[in-house]
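Continuing from the previous page...

OK, I double-checked the sequence for DNA recombination protein RmuC homolog against my notes and this is the correct one:
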Amino acid sequence: MPGVVAFGVLLAGLGGGAVLAWALGAGKRGRAGAGGADADLLARLYVLVEQEAAATRTEAMHQRTHLGELERVMTGRIEQVRTELAERLAGMVGSMGREQAEVRAAQAEALREMAETSARQLSAIRVAVTDQLHEAVERQMQTSFQRVLEQFTAMQKAMGEVRAMTAQISDLKRLFGNVKTRGGWGEAQLKAILDDVLPEGAYESNVRLGPGSDVVEFAIRMPVRSSTPPVLPVDSKFPTEAYERLLNAVEEGDAGAEKAARKSLENTLRLESRKIATKYIHPPRTVEFAVLYLPTDGLYAEAARIPGLIDEIGRTCRVMIMGPALMPALLRTVHLGYVTLALEDRTETIARLLGATRQEMLRMDGVLEKLARNAQAMSTSIEEARRRTRVVSRRLRELDAPEAEGMEMNSEMEFTGPAPGNTASGQA
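Thanks. Re-ran it with the corrected sequence; updated structure tokens here:
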């Protein structure tokens, strides 16, 4: 700030000197014309400039003094503010320290309470878990003991059933010891499968196919379109002796006896297949093959275990060997053929129905066309009647117009009276 004042004084002095120099120069230039009057004017100007410079210097000194005092005041004020800020900061630091100490103390107390609460809860949970485990162990032990008792009871019951089954097996052995009874059992089982899969009337029982007296157990009608459809011969065989010898040899672990029993079973199946081929395959009364049915899956599995037996019998004798698991698949194929025939018949019926429907639709189209022509003629007649009605209405309006004019004239005469000419003539 003092520098600004000094700079102002310097500028004032430079301005005064410039004015004085200008005045002196002007005085020298105008000395020849103006004379002594100009010198007096210059002296006065010089005095004024000196006075102005002195006043400026005095003002500058006053400004410098005022600025010094203002600087001292501002310095004191700044020191005071700094002291107040330091005191406030110290107070804030102390307050924050106290608050932090209180917060730490509160947190420590809360953590201690949480730890105590957690300890109490863990103790309660431990007691509850211990009680529940004890109850669960007791229930499990009781359940296990009850299950053991039930299993022991079931075992005793199963032992009784095994004894009863053993007696039944003995009865079955005695029953199957008779060849006729054994064959009847296989035939009954095969009949149950046929009844379960095929539709009614799809097979016949005890049918004579050839010229001799040989009768096949079942003859399945094939699903073909013919007045006398071919049949599929199905015969049930149950070579129990060879099968039992094979099972006994396998159970005893006698390889030689097992091989001999398996060979005996193979020979029996080949012999029965040749018999079926000779007795029951007679095209075109029958199809080109027949079926040898084995009543048990175990017997069929032993036959399938003999390498190449089933394929060779099917190729040479044209006989398919099947068990209870495979027979339904063949019968479902036959049943699918019957379903296909039924669908074809249904399709033909639908085609005929569609043809008849098409003819009816053509007739309906003709009827609708006639109705359209009649409707068009009726529309024309209605339009003509409307036109005639409009003509009659127009004529009626034309008739009503003169009457309306006459009524208007009468009304005017009543309101205005008769004309003057008519009155004079009447008086005369």
